[in-house]
Inverse folding.
Protein backbone atom coordinates (compact mmCIF):
# COMPACT_ATOMS: atom_id res chain seq x y z
CA UNK A 1 0.00 0.00 0.00
CA UNK A 2 1.44 3.36 -1.01
CA UNK A 3 0.58 6.77 0.40
CA UNK A 4 -1.32 7.80 3.47
CA UNK A 5 -5.04 8.13 3.59
CA UNK A 6 -8.11 9.47 5.27
CA UNK A 7 -10.72 6.73 5.35
CA UNK A 8 -14.47 7.23 5.07
CA UNK A 9 -16.81 4.39 5.98
CA UNK A 10 -19.59 4.32 3.37
CA UNK A 11 -22.74 3.40 5.25
CA UNK A 12 -25.43 1.55 3.35
CA UNK A 13 -29.16 1.50 3.89
CA UNK A 14 -31.04 -1.25 2.02
CA UNK A 15 -28.04 -1.58 -0.34
CA UNK A 16 -28.10 2.15 -1.12
CA UNK A 17 -25.34 4.45 0.10
CA UNK A 18 -26.51 6.65 2.99
CA UNK A 19 -26.12 10.36 2.05
CA UNK A 20 -23.97 10.97 5.13
CA UNK A 21 -21.20 9.03 3.35
CA UNK A 22 -21.14 11.70 0.63
CA UNK A 23 -21.08 14.50 3.20
CA UNK A 24 -18.09 12.84 4.90
CA UNK A 25 -16.30 12.43 1.58
CA UNK A 26 -16.71 16.15 0.89
CA UNK A 27 -15.10 16.98 4.24
CA UNK A 28 -12.43 14.30 3.80
CA UNK A 29 -11.48 15.82 0.43
CA UNK A 30 -11.05 19.24 2.03
CA UNK A 31 -8.84 17.86 4.82
CA UNK A 32 -6.89 15.61 2.47
CA UNK A 33 -5.88 18.60 0.32
CA UNK A 34 -4.53 20.39 3.41
CA UNK A 35 -2.70 17.40 4.88
CA UNK A 36 -1.46 15.83 1.64
CA UNK A 37 -3.46 12.62 2.10
CA UNK A 38 -5.43 10.40 -0.27
CA UNK A 39 -9.15 9.86 0.33
CA UNK A 40 -10.13 6.22 0.72
CA UNK A 41 -13.57 4.79 1.24
CA UNK A 42 -14.64 1.34 2.39
CA UNK A 43 -18.08 -0.13 1.70
CA UNK A 44 -19.45 -3.45 2.96
CA UNK A 45 -22.44 -5.50 1.89
CA UNK A 46 -23.70 -7.96 -0.67
CA UNK A 47 -24.00 -6.85 -4.30
CA UNK A 48 -22.61 -3.40 -3.52
CA UNK A 49 -19.54 -3.33 -5.81
CA UNK A 50 -21.38 -1.37 -8.49
CA UNK A 51 -22.02 1.42 -5.96
CA UNK A 52 -18.30 2.13 -5.56
CA UNK A 53 -18.12 4.55 -8.50
CA UNK A 54 -20.57 6.89 -6.72
CA UNK A 55 -18.04 7.22 -3.90
CA UNK A 56 -15.36 8.21 -6.41
CA UNK A 57 -17.69 10.83 -7.93
CA UNK A 58 -18.09 12.33 -4.45
CA UNK A 59 -14.36 12.54 -3.77
CA UNK A 60 -12.77 9.13 -3.01
CA UNK A 61 -9.46 8.34 -4.71
CA UNK A 62 -9.73 4.66 -3.90
CA UNK A 63 -12.68 2.49 -2.84
CA UNK A 64 -12.44 -0.89 -1.15
CA UNK A 65 -15.64 -2.87 -1.64
CA UNK A 66 -16.14 -5.90 0.60
CA UNK A 67 -18.81 -7.66 -1.39
CA UNK A 68 -19.84 -10.84 0.38
CA UNK A 69 -23.08 -12.71 1.10
CA UNK A 70 -22.06 -12.90 4.77
CA UNK A 71 -22.30 -9.08 4.90
CA UNK A 72 -25.83 -8.88 3.46
CA UNK A 73 -27.43 -7.92 6.80
CA UNK A 74 -26.13 -5.10 8.95
CA UNK A 75 -24.54 -7.13 11.72
CA UNK A 76 -22.43 -4.99 14.00
CA UNK A 77 -20.08 -7.78 15.11
CA UNK A 78 -19.46 -9.01 11.56
CA UNK A 79 -18.93 -5.49 10.20
CA UNK A 80 -16.66 -4.55 13.09
CA UNK A 81 -14.40 -7.58 12.49
CA UNK A 82 -13.98 -6.81 8.78
CA UNK A 83 -13.33 -3.10 9.37
CA UNK A 84 -10.86 -3.72 12.19
CA UNK A 85 -8.82 -6.09 9.98
CA UNK A 86 -9.00 -3.60 7.14
CA UNK A 87 -7.76 -0.67 9.24
CA UNK A 88 -4.92 -2.76 10.69
CA UNK A 89 -3.80 -3.57 7.16
CA UNK A 90 -4.21 -0.16 5.49
CA UNK A 91 -3.31 2.06 8.49
CA UNK A 92 -5.29 5.22 7.62
CA UNK A 93 -4.29 8.40 9.43
CA UNK A 94 -7.90 9.42 10.03
CA UNK A 95 -11.10 7.32 10.00
CA UNK A 96 -14.50 9.02 9.61
CA UNK A 97 -17.84 7.37 10.35
CA UNK A 98 -21.33 8.95 10.29
CA UNK A 99 -22.96 9.52 13.67
CA UNK A 100 -26.13 7.76 12.55
CA UNK A 101 -27.68 5.15 14.88
CA UNK A 102 -25.70 2.49 12.98
CA UNK A 103 -22.44 4.47 13.01
CA UNK A 104 -22.84 5.21 16.72
CA UNK A 105 -23.08 1.49 17.36
CA UNK A 106 -20.22 0.50 15.07
CA UNK A 107 -17.57 3.17 15.73
CA UNK A 108 -16.91 2.61 19.46
CA UNK A 109 -16.56 -1.14 18.91
CA UNK A 110 -13.96 -0.53 16.21
CA UNK A 111 -12.11 2.06 18.32
CA UNK A 112 -11.99 -0.30 21.31
CA UNK A 113 -10.72 -3.19 19.17
CA UNK A 114 -8.01 -0.93 17.68
CA UNK A 115 -7.17 0.51 21.10
CA UNK A 116 -7.54 4.06 19.79
CA UNK A 117 -9.61 7.06 20.84
CA UNK A 118 -12.94 8.15 19.37
CA UNK A 119 -14.36 11.67 19.25
CA UNK A 120 -18.08 11.16 18.87
CA UNK A 121 -20.78 13.39 17.41
CA UNK A 122 -18.55 16.04 15.84
CA UNK A 123 -20.13 18.92 14.00
CA UNK A 124 -16.99 20.11 12.21
CA UNK A 125 -13.39 19.21 11.43
CA UNK A 126 -10.63 21.72 10.84
CA UNK A 127 -6.90 21.65 10.25
CA UNK A 128 -4.77 23.80 12.57
CA UNK A 129 -1.92 26.00 11.30
CA UNK A 130 0.59 23.37 12.40
CA UNK A 131 -1.23 20.65 10.42
CA UNK A 132 -3.19 18.93 13.22
CA UNK A 133 -6.75 17.69 12.83
CA UNK A 134 -9.09 19.57 15.16
CA UNK A 135 -12.35 17.79 15.94
CA UNK A 136 -15.17 20.09 17.02
CA UNK A 137 -18.12 18.87 19.05
CA UNK A 138 -20.65 20.37 21.47
CA UNK A 139 -19.75 19.88 25.12
CA UNK A 140 -21.41 20.70 28.45
CA UNK A 141 -24.83 20.02 26.93
CA UNK A 142 -24.15 22.18 23.93
CA UNK A 143 -23.14 25.34 25.80
CA UNK A 144 -19.58 25.30 24.44
CA UNK A 145 -17.88 23.87 21.39
CA UNK A 146 -14.89 21.73 22.38
CA UNK A 147 -11.89 21.66 20.02
CA UNK A 148 -10.30 18.25 20.39
CA UNK A 149 -6.92 17.04 19.17
CA UNK A 150 -6.22 13.31 19.34
CA UNK A 151 -2.79 11.74 19.57
CA UNK A 152 -3.75 8.07 19.10
CA UNK A 153 -3.88 6.60 15.57
CA UNK A 154 -5.97 6.31 13.58
CA UNK A 155 -7.80 9.45 14.64
CA UNK A 156 -11.38 8.20 14.77
CA UNK A 157 -14.35 10.51 14.56
CA UNK A 158 -18.09 10.18 14.15
CA UNK A 159 -19.80 13.14 12.49
CA UNK A 160 -23.43 14.12 12.73
CA UNK A 161 -25.68 13.79 9.72
CA UNK A 162 -26.53 16.98 7.82
CA UNK A 163 -23.96 19.20 9.52
CA UNK A 164 -21.41 18.97 6.68
CA UNK A 165 -22.06 20.45 3.25
CA UNK A 166 -23.17 17.92 0.62
CA UNK A 167 -20.55 18.08 -2.19
CA UNK A 168 -21.54 18.18 -5.84
CA UNK A 169 -20.84 14.81 -7.50
CA UNK A 170 -18.40 14.87 -10.41
CA UNK A 171 -19.16 11.93 -12.74
CA UNK A 172 -15.91 12.58 -14.61
CA UNK A 173 -13.75 11.87 -11.52
CA UNK A 174 -11.65 8.75 -11.83
CA UNK A 175 -10.36 6.49 -9.06
CA UNK A 176 -9.51 2.94 -8.19
CA UNK A 177 -12.04 0.30 -7.06
CA UNK A 178 -10.69 -2.75 -5.25
CA UNK A 179 -13.24 -5.53 -4.72
CA UNK A 180 -12.41 -7.83 -1.85
CA UNK A 181 -13.70 -10.78 0.11
CA UNK A 182 -13.06 -10.67 3.85
CA UNK A 183 -10.79 -13.36 5.22
CA UNK A 184 -12.66 -13.35 8.52
CA UNK A 185 -16.27 -12.46 9.35
CA UNK A 186 -16.82 -12.77 13.07
CA UNK A 187 -20.11 -14.35 14.08
CA UNK A 188 -22.09 -12.97 16.99
CA UNK A 189 -24.18 -16.08 17.59
CA UNK A 190 -27.40 -14.18 16.88
CA UNK A 191 -29.76 -15.65 14.29
CA UNK A 192 -31.52 -12.98 12.23
CA UNK A 193 -35.19 -13.97 11.92
CA UNK A 194 -36.46 -11.01 9.92
CA UNK A 195 -37.37 -7.37 10.11
CA UNK A 196 -40.29 -6.54 12.37
CA UNK A 197 -40.63 -2.79 11.96
CA UNK A 198 -38.94 0.17 10.39
CA UNK A 199 -38.06 3.34 12.29
CA UNK A 200 -41.30 5.27 12.42
CA UNK A 201 -39.97 8.61 11.31
CA UNK A 202 -36.96 9.98 9.51
CA UNK A 203 -36.55 13.43 11.02
CA UNK A 204 -33.07 14.03 9.67
CA UNK A 205 -34.28 14.02 6.05
CA UNK A 206 -37.60 15.82 6.64
CA UNK A 207 -38.25 19.00 4.68
CA UNK A 208 -40.96 20.27 7.04
CA UNK A 209 -41.08 19.63 10.79
CA UNK A 210 -43.86 20.66 13.15
CA UNK A 211 -42.34 20.37 16.61
CA UNK A 212 -44.05 20.43 19.99
CA UNK A 213 -42.72 21.12 23.47
CA UNK A 214 -43.91 21.41 27.03
CA UNK A 215 -46.45 24.00 25.93
CA UNK A 216 -48.56 20.93 25.10
CA UNK A 217 -50.72 19.94 28.04
CA UNK A 218 -51.20 16.24 27.33
CA UNK A 219 -50.07 13.43 25.05
CA UNK A 220 -53.30 13.39 23.03
CA UNK A 221 -52.69 17.01 21.99
CA UNK A 222 -49.82 15.84 19.78
CA UNK A 223 -52.63 15.02 17.35
CA UNK A 224 -53.03 18.73 16.59
CA UNK A 225 -49.41 18.86 15.47
CA UNK A 226 -49.77 15.61 13.53
CA UNK A 227 -52.71 17.10 11.66
CA UNK A 228 -50.77 20.25 10.78
CA UNK A 229 -47.72 18.20 9.75
CA UNK A 230 -49.95 15.98 7.57
CA UNK A 231 -51.44 19.00 5.80
CA UNK A 232 -47.99 20.44 5.13
CA UNK A 233 -46.45 17.12 4.07
CA UNK A 234 -44.15 17.16 7.09
CA UNK A 235 -43.43 15.15 10.23
CA UNK A 236 -43.71 15.73 13.96
CA UNK A 237 -40.68 16.52 16.11
CA UNK A 238 -40.56 17.17 19.84
CA UNK A 239 -38.40 18.57 22.61
CA UNK A 240 -36.84 16.09 25.02
CA UNK A 241 -39.31 16.42 27.92
CA UNK A 242 -42.06 14.90 25.77
CA UNK A 243 -39.90 11.85 25.10
CA UNK A 244 -39.08 11.60 28.80
CA UNK A 245 -42.80 11.69 29.59
CA UNK A 246 -43.21 8.67 27.30
CA UNK A 247 -45.58 10.56 24.99
CA UNK A 248 -43.63 9.71 21.83
CA UNK A 249 -40.55 7.74 20.77
CA UNK A 250 -37.02 9.15 20.83
CA UNK A 251 -36.93 8.99 17.01
CA UNK A 252 -38.93 12.24 17.15
CA UNK A 253 -36.60 14.10 19.51
CA UNK A 254 -34.79 17.14 18.14
CA UNK A 255 -31.69 18.43 19.85
CA UNK A 256 -28.34 17.80 21.40
CA UNK A 257 -29.18 14.30 22.59
CA UNK A 258 -31.65 13.62 19.76
CA UNK A 259 -31.65 14.31 16.03
CA UNK A 260 -29.91 17.13 14.20
CA UNK A 261 -32.36 18.43 11.62
CA UNK A 262 -32.15 20.87 8.73
CA UNK A 263 -35.65 21.12 7.23
CA UNK A 264 -36.76 23.90 4.93
CA UNK A 265 -39.38 24.88 7.52
CA UNK A 266 -39.31 24.24 11.28
CA UNK A 267 -42.41 25.21 13.25
CA UNK A 268 -41.70 25.22 17.00
CA UNK A 269 -44.90 25.13 19.05
CA UNK A 270 -44.66 25.66 22.80
CA UNK A 271 -40.87 25.21 22.80
CA UNK A 272 -38.82 27.68 24.84
CA UNK A 273 -35.59 27.34 22.81
CA UNK A 274 -33.08 25.84 25.25
CA UNK A 275 -29.45 25.59 24.03
CA UNK A 276 -29.90 21.81 23.86
CA UNK A 277 -32.94 22.10 21.60
CA UNK A 278 -31.39 24.80 19.43
CA UNK A 279 -28.31 22.61 18.95
CA UNK A 280 -30.43 20.27 16.85
CA UNK A 281 -32.46 22.71 14.72
CA UNK A 282 -30.81 26.12 14.48
CA UNK A 283 -29.65 25.47 10.90
CA UNK A 284 -33.23 24.99 9.65
CA UNK A 285 -34.20 27.10 6.62
CA UNK A 286 -37.15 29.05 8.02
CA UNK A 287 -37.92 28.87 11.74
CA UNK A 288 -41.42 29.76 12.89
CA UNK A 289 -42.03 29.93 16.63
CA UNK A 290 -45.40 29.88 18.36
CA UNK A 291 -45.18 30.72 22.04
CA UNK A 292 -47.27 32.58 24.61
CA UNK A 293 -44.17 34.13 26.18
CA UNK A 294 -42.74 36.99 24.07
CA UNK A 295 -39.42 36.69 25.93
CA UNK A 296 -38.94 32.98 25.06
CA UNK A 297 -35.37 32.48 23.69
CA UNK A 298 -36.72 30.66 20.60
CA UNK A 299 -37.89 34.04 19.24
CA UNK A 300 -34.27 35.20 19.01
CA UNK A 301 -33.65 32.44 16.46
CA UNK A 302 -37.01 32.54 14.67
CA UNK A 303 -37.58 34.08 11.24
CA UNK A 304 -41.27 34.46 12.12
CA UNK A 305 -42.52 34.73 15.68
CA UNK A 306 -46.13 34.24 16.69
CA UNK A 307 -46.93 35.28 20.27
CA UNK A 308 -50.02 33.17 20.77
CA UNK A 309 -51.53 30.20 22.55
CA UNK A 310 -50.80 27.20 20.34
CA UNK A 311 -54.24 25.77 21.21
CA UNK A 312 -55.81 28.77 19.50
CA UNK A 313 -53.31 29.44 16.75
CA UNK A 314 -52.61 25.93 15.39
CA UNK A 315 -56.30 24.90 14.95
CA UNK A 316 -56.94 28.19 13.13
CA UNK A 317 -53.94 27.56 10.89
CA UNK A 318 -55.23 24.03 10.20
CA UNK A 319 -58.71 25.35 9.23
CA UNK A 320 -57.11 27.95 7.03
CA UNK A 321 -54.94 25.37 5.23
CA UNK A 322 -57.93 23.05 4.76
CA UNK A 323 -59.90 25.90 3.24
CA UNK A 324 -57.04 26.79 0.90
CA UNK A 325 -56.61 23.16 -0.14
CA UNK A 326 -60.37 22.66 -0.48
CA UNK A 327 -60.59 25.55 -2.89
CA UNK A 328 -57.49 24.43 -4.72
CA UNK A 329 -56.01 27.88 -4.26
CA UNK A 330 -52.27 28.35 -4.19
CA UNK A 331 -52.32 31.85 -2.69
CA UNK A 332 -54.91 33.54 -0.49
CA UNK A 333 -54.72 37.28 -0.19
CA UNK A 334 -55.73 39.14 2.94
CA UNK A 335 -55.62 36.02 5.12
C1 LIG B 1 -27.66 16.54 28.78
C2 LIG B 1 -28.93 17.17 28.29
C3 LIG B 1 -29.33 16.92 27.00
C4 LIG B 1 -30.51 17.47 26.52
N1 LIG B 1 -30.90 17.20 25.24
C5 LIG B 1 -32.04 17.77 24.77
C6 LIG B 1 -32.44 17.55 23.41
O1 LIG B 1 -31.81 16.81 22.66
N2 LIG B 1 -33.57 18.17 22.99
C7 LIG B 1 -34.34 18.99 23.80
O2 LIG B 1 -35.35 19.52 23.32
N3 LIG B 1 -33.97 19.19 25.07
C8 LIG B 1 -32.87 18.61 25.58
N4 LIG B 1 -32.53 18.79 26.88
C9 LIG B 1 -33.50 19.49 27.75
C10 LIG B 1 -33.41 21.01 27.67
O3 LIG B 1 -32.47 21.49 28.58
C11 LIG B 1 -34.79 21.67 28.02
O4 LIG B 1 -35.21 21.24 29.28
C12 LIG B 1 -35.88 21.33 27.00
O5 LIG B 1 -35.44 21.58 25.67
C13 LIG B 1 -37.11 22.19 27.27
O6 LIG B 1 -38.17 21.73 26.47
P1 LIG B 1 -39.36 22.70 26.10
O7 LIG B 1 -38.88 23.91 25.39
O8 LIG B 1 -40.41 21.87 25.44
O9 LIG B 1 -39.95 23.07 27.56
P2 LIG B 1 -39.92 24.44 28.35
O10 LIG B 1 -38.55 24.98 28.45
O11 LIG B 1 -40.68 24.20 29.62
O12 LIG B 1 -40.75 25.45 27.44
C14 LIG B 1 -42.13 25.35 27.20
C15 LIG B 1 -42.52 26.61 26.42
O13 LIG B 1 -43.89 26.50 26.05
C16 LIG B 1 -44.46 27.79 26.15
N5 LIG B 1 -45.91 27.57 26.30
C17 LIG B 1 -46.59 27.11 27.39
N6 LIG B 1 -47.89 26.98 27.09
C18 LIG B 1 -48.03 27.37 25.79
C19 LIG B 1 -49.15 27.43 24.92
N7 LIG B 1 -50.39 27.08 25.31
N8 LIG B 1 -48.95 27.90 23.66
C20 LIG B 1 -47.72 28.27 23.23
N9 LIG B 1 -46.63 28.21 24.03
C21 LIG B 1 -46.79 27.75 25.29
C22 LIG B 1 -43.80 28.44 27.35
O14 LIG B 1 -43.86 29.85 27.28
C23 LIG B 1 -42.38 27.90 27.22
O15 LIG B 1 -41.56 28.81 26.49
C24 LIG B 1 -31.34 18.28 27.38
C25 LIG B 1 -30.91 18.53 28.68
C26 LIG B 1 -29.72 17.98 29.13
C27 LIG B 1 -29.30 18.28 30.53
Amino acid sequence: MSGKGILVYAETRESEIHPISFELLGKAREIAEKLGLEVWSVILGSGISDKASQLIHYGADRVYAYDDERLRDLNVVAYKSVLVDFVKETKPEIFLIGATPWGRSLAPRIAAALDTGLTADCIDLQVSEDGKLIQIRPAFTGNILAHIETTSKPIMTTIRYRVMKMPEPDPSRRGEVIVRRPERVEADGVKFLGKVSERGVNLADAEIIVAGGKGLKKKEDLRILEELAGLLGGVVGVSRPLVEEGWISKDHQVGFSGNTVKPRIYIACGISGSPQHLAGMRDSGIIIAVNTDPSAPIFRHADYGVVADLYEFIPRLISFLKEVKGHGKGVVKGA
The chain is about 25% helix and 25% strand. The CA atoms of residues 73 and 106 lie 14 Å apart. Residues 208-326 form a domain with the Rossmann fold fold (CATH 3.40.50.1220). The pocket of flavin-adenine dinucleotide is lined by residues 141, 213-215, 239-241, 253-258, 270-272, 274, 276-277, 280, 290-293, 296, 309-311 (CB under 6 Å).
